[in-house]
Amino acid sequence: MNNAELASVYEDYIACLNAQDWTILGRFVADDVEHNSSVLGLPGYRNMLEDNFAEIPDLQFSVELLVVEPPHIASRLRFNCSPSANFLGLRINGRTVSFAENVFYEFREAKIARVWSVIDKAAIEDQL
Amino acid sequence: MNNAELASVYEDYIACLNAQDWTILGRFVADDVEHNSSVLGLPGYRNMLEDNFAEIPDLQFSVELLVVEPPHIASRLRFNCSPSANFLGLRINGRTVSFAENVFYEFREAKIARVWSVIDKAAIEDQL
């Protein structure tokens, strides 16, 4: 899979998240996916995402910068959203915050197999 | 500049940081460099790095994962170090902590022109 093909798969994955179309998540995410060194598996990964949308009803993923070198993608994601109560241990209570996530993905057979994510918590704290 | 050449420049940049060889920093960093949307310029960038080493005497940069797509590089850096007092607003007081930084670089004429960095502050908090 070349750069453009892998980027296209990733764009479809992001569209799947934004549509909360969990029935097709398995097209993009491996059965034994790891997230920040925890083996979540596909059901655990789906639970994590569903929890994110439960905590943040207006959550949308927006790709600000994409760096593609198969089998890896690095993505800088931008969020402008309003967590209804707590998020990352911070009391947000419905305020709108803007923050980035810098995240790496390792693909295996066109599916996300490993994820290393860091959310810019300090940027959120600065807005509270 | 192809992937291997850009990766090689980046490896030399990391070696420069670990040697604290500030006299050659300008080989790798543009005069008008921006860091997290602040225009630091080369002197400001050097000051930031010198402050990092003042706060963390045993600071060393270790590349865990590199994704290269010219003109961009994404790097997952790993730190095992002992900030002597405060770091990111947290009281560390000489304890050894392990954390990652997920960071994107945009190169222009083989020099770092823009940087978007996120440090895993939540991981540090979990260790305190």
Please describe what this structure looks like.
2 copies of one chain form a homodimer. Chain A is α+β, with helices and mostly antiparallel strands and 128 residues long. Helices cover 29% and strands 41% of the residues of chain A. Chain A has 3 helices and 8 strands. Chain A has helices at 3-18, 41-55, 121-126; strands at residues 29-35, 38-39, 62-69, 72-81, 86-87, 90-91, 97-108, 111-119. In chain A, the strands form 2 sheets. The first copy, chain A, has a 6-stranded mixed β-sheet. A two-stranded antiparallel sheet of chain A has the order 5-6. The termini of chain A are far apart. The model of chain A has no long low-confidence stretch (mean pLDDT 97). Chain A binds chain B through residues 3, 65, 67-69, 72-74, 76, 88-89, 100-104, 116-122, 125, and chain B through 3, 65, 67-69, 72-74, 76, 88-89, 100-104, 116-122, 125.
Layout of strands and helices, then pairs:
Two copies of one chain form a homodimer.
Chain A: H1 3-18, E1 29-35, E2 38-39, H2 41-55, E3 62-69, E4 72-81, E5 86-87, E6 90-91, E7 97-108, E8 111-119, H3 121-126
Task: Throw out a few tags for this protein.
homodimer; 128 residues; alpha+beta; six-stranded mixed beta sheet; 3 helices; globular
Summarize the structure.
Two copies of one chain form a homodimer. Chain A is an alpha+beta fold and 128 residues long.
Biggest sheet of chain A, in brief?
A: 6 strands, mixed
The secondary-structure element order of chain A is HEEHEEEEEEH
Quaternary form: homodimer
Proportion of strand residues of chain A:
35-45%
Helix content of chain A: 25-40%
Structural class of chain A: alpha+beta
